[in-house]
Amino acid sequence: MTLDPIQPPAPVAFIGLGVMGAAMAANLQRAGFRLAVSNRSRGKAAVLEAAGATWAESPASAARGAACVALCLPDTADVETVLFGPGGVVETVERGAVVIDFSTIAAAPTAAFAARLAQERGAFLLDSPVSGGPAGARDGTLTCMVGGDGGAFEAAQPVLRAVGGKLTHLGPPGAGQVCKSANQLLVAATLQAVAEALALGRKAGLEPEAMRQALLGGSARSFVLENHAKRIIEGTTAPGFRAELMRKDMRLALTATRDHGVFAPATAAAAQMLEALVNSGRGGLDSSALGALVAELSGLDT
User: Fold this and answer.
1) Which one of 143, 219, 234, 295 counts the least CB within 10 Å of its CB?
2) Are residues 123 and 243 in the same domain?
3) Domains identified in the chain, total number
4) Among positive and negative, which fits the CA dihedral 149, 187, 103, 6?
5) Domain residues for 54?
6) Is the separation of the CB atoms in 223 and 217 below 8 Å?
């Protein structure tokens, strides 16, 4: 099936209006798409409704007549419910429509969801987990890691470009989720290393910010050292990206490495530390609170 580009003012549905989803939906609205929105609590849709979006009582209502249906939901089970549960997208989604799942979920179920949507409705599912955080969602500069049908990816370019600055088609359904797991294991493992490095410096009597600046001048430089280390040093724990969400993502990364037979000790160690961080009562704090846990375990005051 050849798909036409989904250009404004095409009707687009957006389901899931958390911090990321609400910002992405607003960018789609600003780009000129006719927006229908659905969420468990209507209050989060108030700003979008005031700007002209249509409220839908269910995912099925939101998807009816939409050229594209976008999802941004917490976990795999939530995506399955929105797609295939009572009042789900599958009840009304049009043949040839493109469903874009911006959630970070497991890769194998994603592939199954894509196959089921294609079989039952003739619709396409792109998995497009994102990186860039709330600021990237707000500014429309997210990195989109996309799996799914190549023709659907091309058709959805105008939608994806309304929310993302870097779009990469990585392969069949589930490929985007595998790439996002790789992204998260890199972030978490680097965060663990940064936390240990800062604890080492403190125990040896180094001034933490001077140490960070020195490290930024060499090959250890990274986004995590530049940003997360600063949060650790300053004791800034307001999220950001909550530790409990990073724990969820690291569980997905562990599953991905096991599914593909990858020897992944760094992933396993970082995942274990995220479990410990959440179990210490810091699940609602920024994931950089890992620095405080490592400091505590090293006998340092926090």
Assistant:
1) 219
2) no
3) 2
4) negative
5) 11-172
6) no
Catalytic, out of 44, 166, 180, 248: 180
Query: Which residue bears the tokens 């798909």?
Result: 3
User: Does 1 map to a domain?
Assistant: no
Residue type, 166: K
Domain co-membership, 192 together with 156: no
State the Cα torsion 23-286-248-39 to the nearest 10°: -30
DSSP, collapsed to helix, strand or coil, labels residue 126 as strand
Half-sphere exposure of 75 (CA within 13 A, CB side): 10
Mean pLDDT of the chain: 97
Both tokens of residue 197? 């490095």
Burial class (CB in 10 A: 0-12, 13-18, 19+), 94: middle
Q: Give the predicted TM-score (pTM) of the model.
A: 0.94
Give me the pLDDT at residue 52, please. Answer: 97
The per-residue pLDDT for range 224-241, each reduced to its tens digit, is 999 999 999 999 999 989
Q: Is the pLDDT of residue 1 over 80?
A: no
Answer yes or no: is pLDDT of 269 > 90: yes
180 an active-site residue?
Answer: yes
Q: For residues 281 and 295, what is the distance between their CA atoms, to the nearest angstrom?
A: 16
